[in-house]
Automatic annotation (TrEMBL):
KW Lyase (keyword) present: yes
PANTHER family attached to this UniProt entry: 2-KETO-4-PENTENOATE HYDRATASE, ACID HYDRATASE
Domain Fumarylacetoacetase-like C-terminal: 85-250
CC per GO annotation: cytoplasm
Superkingdom assignment: Bacteria
Keywords: Lyase
GO MF terms held by the record: 2-oxopent-4-enoate hydratase activity
InterPro entries xrefs: Fumarylacetoacetase-like_C, Fumarylacetoacetase_C_sf, Hydratase-Decarb/MhpD_sf
Name listed for the protein in its UniProt record: 2-oxo-3-hexenedioate decarboxylase
Record lineage: Bacteria, Pseudomonadati, Pseudomonadota, Betaproteobacteria, Burkholderiales
Native species: Pseudorhodoferax soli
SUPFAM superfamilies linked: FAH
UniProt cross-references to Gene3D superfamilies, sorted A to Z: Fumarylacetoacetase-like, C-terminal domain
Keyword Acyltransferase attributed: no
Length: 254
């Protein structure tokens, strides 16, 4: 692992100071285990600076995202409190390298959820669901990367906005959604794009988190993944997600 300390520092600094870095593994010599170890170590640096772990994000859980990025394995990343953007707030463009936004659904857990669980067990651990926008911001030049590289870069996670929480009594398997930039609809889709049922993304999150020795905790947030391709965003734009039955989530880039 120590051989990768320089990569850990490079990626963490790039995220912290919002500058791009070259790809470091175009030959594909990094294993997925190495990549997750780098991710873990870079999050440890954040924790060391006082950030707190608040959950997990899932990636490439929709065909739309797999096709857009040219990768087809489900990945995951770690969320900290510093990544959360207050609903409706102003977000400085300067915080990012080359941000994109995508529509997601978020789960808030009321119980720990660990290992191989059924959909029913996962649902029983959900306190609430909400529409969410994820701001992804790959630290790699031109937003281009291999699978191990994006995993090492914490699955491009950079920011996320969660709208109002709702009890999970509503059937959320196929909720229509529209993402708007400055009022113009730029992406439309459904929560069904997420593995056929977003709950499957939560089931996967429980499995991979436990395997990493960090089981999902009560109070954590799980982002189920982008339901449509992501859109580039720029200073001055207002970004909003409307989700059937669950209201909206939005922010303003300044
Ligand atoms: C990787 C992150 C993928 C999602 O929701 O599928 C992701 C990327 O697209 O840069 O967050
Ligand atoms: Mg995402």
């Amino acid at each position: 692992m120590s051989a990768h300390q320089d990569i850990v520092a490079t990626l963490d600094d790039a995220a912290r100071f919002a500058h791009e870095v070259p790809q470091f593994d175009t030959q594909g010599s990094l294993t997925l285990n190495d990549a997750y170890a780098i991710q873990s170590a870079s999050i440890q640096r954040r924790i060391g600076r006082g950030e707190q772990r608040v959950g997990v994000k899932m990636g490439f859980t929709s065909r739309a995202k797999m096709v857009q990025m040219g990768l087809s394995d489900v990945i995951w990343g770690r969320l900290t409190d510093a990544m959360q953007i207050e609903e409706g707030s102003d977000v400085p463009r300067a915080r990012f390298v080359h941000p994109r936004v995508e529509p997601e659904i978020a789960f808030l857990l009321k119980k720990p959820l660990s290992g191989r669980v059924t959909g029913a067990e996962a649902l029983a651990a959900v306190e609430a669901i909400a529409p969410a926008l994820e701001v992804i911001d790959s630290r790699y030049k031109d937003f281009k990367f291999t699978l191990p590289e994006v995993i090492a870069d914490n699955a491009s996670s950079s920011g996320f906005v969660v709208g109002g929480w709702h009890a999970p009594t509503l059937d959320f398997r196929n909720l229509g959604l529209v993402m708007r930039i400055d009022g113009r609809a730029v992406q439309a889709g459904s929560t069904a794009a997420l593995l056929g049922d977003p709950l499957r993304s939560l089931v996967a999150a429980a499995r991979v988190s436990a395997a990493a020795g960090e089981p999902l905790q009560a109070g954590w947030i799980v982002l189920a993944g982008g339901a449509t391709p992501a859109e580039w965003i720029h200073a001055g734009q207002h970004i909003a997600l409307q989700m059937q039955g669950l209201g909206s989530a939005s922010f303003q880039m300044v």
